[in-house]
Amino acid sequence: MGSMKLSRSILRTFVILQFWGASGQQTAFSLIENGVVTNSTANITAGNATTTDNSDEIDVPIDLVLDLPEYALEDLISPRFLAYQWLLDHPRLSSLTEDRKAQMYALVTWYYSMQGDKWDETAQASFLNYDISECNWSTEVLCRNVTDGNITYLYLSDLETRGLEGIMPAEVAMIPELRSISITNCGLDAQLEEDMLPLSFYRTGLRRRLRNINYSGNRLEGTIPTRIGRLNNLNSLNFDGNSLDGPLPSELGLMDDLVSLRIESNRLTSTIPTEIANLMELEVLALEGNRLTGSIPFDIGALANLEELQLQNNRFNSTIPLVFGVLIQLKKLRLEDNQFSGTLPAQFSGLTNLEELNLENNPGIVGTIPPQWGNLQSLTELRLGGTQLVGVIPRSMCQILSINILEVNCSNVECPAVCTCQCQQAVVPNTNTTTSSVSRTP
Ligand SMILES: *[C@@H]1O[C@H](CO)[C@@H](O)[C@H](O)[C@H]1NC(C)=O
Ligand SMILES: *[C@@H]1O[C@H](CO)[C@@H](O)[C@H](O)[C@H]1NC(C)=O
Ligand SMILES: *[C@@H]1O[C@H](CO)[C@@H](O)[C@H](O)[C@H]1NC(C)=O
Ligand SMILES: *[C@@H]1O[C@H](CO)[C@@H](O)[C@H](O)[C@H]1NC(C)=O
Ligand SMILES: *[C@@H]1O[C@H](CO)[C@@H](O)[C@H](O)[C@H]1NC(C)=O
Ligand SMILES: *[C@@H]1O[C@H](CO)[C@@H](O)[C@H](O)[C@H]1NC(C)=O
Ligand SMILES: *[C@@H]1O[C@H](CO)[C@@H](O)[C@H](O)[C@H]1NC(C)=O
Ligand SMILES: *[C@@H]1O[C@H](CO)[C@@H](O)[C@H](O)[C@H]1NC(C)=O
Ligand SMILES: *[C@@H]1O[C@H](CO)[C@@H](O)[C@H](O)[C@H]1NC(C)=O
Ligand SMILES: *[C@@H]1O[C@H](CO)[C@@H](O)[C@H](O)[C@H]1NC(C)=O
């Protein structure tokens, strides 16, 4: 316990966090390192997009559909024509409210636009059945509740084998209470901007209602449109596992209700824009598996709620950002397979909620494991192989009760006398990293 006390008092002189609270455009935190204050200086602006301008907002009038047949008849096999025809054939058309007609028309248009006639039977379920409420057409098209019959959630998943070529029709904006759209693992071959983010997302009331978009596991191509920043009531955005390229637009910083932002496993090539630091609600930021480069914006320290930061498998090439040490809610910090360099920051010792820390395969990391890291009392997994670390595992780390895996290169990093270590080839296939399992002295 003596060593723990020591490391805590050392810690105090290294890192003091001060959160100022947002004042004007100044960011909200400072990092104090050995008595030297670094304030976050960059002004956080979010590009030139504005969130308040609704001047171009239009409604999609239901009249356009029901009173102007030439609109719907323009193309006899178009999804909107098929939906229009379906609605006209409805046996109880005259008793339906306008809202209900709009919802049904939009949902059937969506069905045809997403190649519903090619879905497997489970997915098709009872779609288009006049005798069943559209709420109950499929267990996946969810209504807020069965009494009011409003559709809130469009959901399609795991149709990968077919390779859908659907598009998201503008008409979905006519579903009065739509909140969430999830089309995942469908192998959807489409352009993100042109096919999957129609203008009606931005120019109707849907813009304010939409909370979640999940397009993970498709084959979406193109860049992330800058105007996506206008969808600023979204709580979660997920484009994981697609083929998006180009930069992370700074306008993402306008989406300040985001709790979860995931764009892992794409082909993004840029730095992380400073504006990301505007997303003060963010709990999950997952950008792994891209070609992101450069350094991490210092202002990211403003993301005080961040619990999961996944930046592994990119091309980041700065020193390990000290500022991560202020993200005290972090549970998972994954930085492996990059070109981070320099020494391990003692400043991480404030991350007392951290469970998983991975820095392996950053060959430019040098030095020793800081004794202050014994303060990481929630750690279960620490991976430091594939670096140039040397020296002895700090005694203080043997006192971390929760630790299961401490991975280092056993040729270079020794076990302290007070710990028990087992050095062995890791059981993980396809890696030659040696593992040191550290346990406490009896
Ligand atoms: C940092 O910001 C605080 C609060 O705004 C201010 O009092 C202090 O003078 C600043 N320090 C430096 C070095 O800019
Ligand atoms: C921040 O913005 C304010 C007001 O827009 C400006 O006066 C100041 O110079 C900016 N500071 C920096 C560091 O860009
Ligand atoms: C904002 O507008 C200015 C002037 O039109 C332009 O130079 C700048 O690149 C724009 N910034 C962004 C982030 O679009
Ligand atoms: C949907 O099905 C459930 C269970 O069969 C039923 O209770 C509910 O009334 C149906 N909803 C509508 C809107 O018909
Ligand atoms: C279900 O719908 C009814 C009727 O619109 C509404 O009064 C009730 O609050 C809704 N319940 C929920 C949980 O949304
Ligand atoms: C949906 O909710 C609105 C109020 O938001 C209500 O007027 C309408 O009747 C509900 N039902 C349908 C099927 O749209
Ligand atoms: C999005 O879809 C994926 C794949 O189905 C799922 O794992 C994830 O939990 C979904 N939700 C969010 C918010 O990302
Ligand atoms: C990081 O990589 C980028 C792109 O390859 C390069 O332009 C930049 O100079 C590198 N920075 C450092 C510090 O090596
Ligand atoms: C692991 O080591 C073996 C023997 O030294 C070598 O043949 C193999 O290629 C290595 N595998 C990896 C993934 O580095
Ligand atoms: C471990 O370190 C030794 C000595 O520096 C080196 O030869 C070996 O390649 C390292 N192993 C790994 C998996 O990095």
TrEMBL record:
Q: Where is the signal peptide?
A: 1-24
Task: Output the InterPro entries linked to this UniProt entry.
Answer: Leu-rich_rpt, LRR_dom_sf, LRRC69/RLP
In its UniProt entry, what is this protein called? LRR receptor-like serine threonine-protein kinase
Molecular function per GO: kinase activity
- Taxonomic superkingdom: Eukaryota
* PANTHER family given in the database record: LEUCINE-RICH REPEAT SERINE/THREONINE-PROTEIN KINASE 1
- Swiss-Prot/TrEMBL keywords: Kinase, Leucine-rich repeat, Receptor, Repeat, Signal, Transferase
